[in-house]
Predict the 3D structure of the following.
Amino acid sequence: MARLVSNLEVWSIVKAAAPSVLSERALLLDVGYRPLSIVSVRRAILLLISEKAEMLHAGEDSVRSERIKLNAPSVIRLRYQVAAPYRRRAPLHRKAVFARDGSLCQYCGRRAECIDHVHPRSKGGQHEWENVVACCRSCNAAKGDTLPENSKFKLKSAPYAPEPIAVAAALRRGIPTEWDAYIVNPLQLSA
Ligand SMILES: [Zn+2]
């Protein structure tokens, strides 16, 4: 398909498609099927048509010009090796902390209502993934600024920094099911 498509054709497809479709998101994988980033459908189409990527899963919407019709990509894979991207840490995001912790207080297991700094900020604790947990108000208030080693509040599991791609996917309105296979340790946001 792709070699027969002229640049003009590419632009006619991209121009003809509804802006809402083009701004949808597609998951971009590297050669080894690992998630690289989340890109716009517009960028995904350009990667496909220039043969830099192949389609693994198509979405339901389609884009078309007079000559060709293309299903909007949902998961695409780069055809060539890229230098291993510098793995950035995901920015700390309250919603994503709740998703990581299942919206449950990490001390008592009841429904979480706030974020707790395990090592209190007033005593030098950092605002980072490994030091924040979802927490209920009563545990949060009772724990106060006690240091973990002096506290009767014990964590159910050690807080960790999720993969940036898992956070980005979780913060979307809903992850397409076809993305699930590629995202290790996905975070589930509760509605
Ligand atoms: Zn609690």
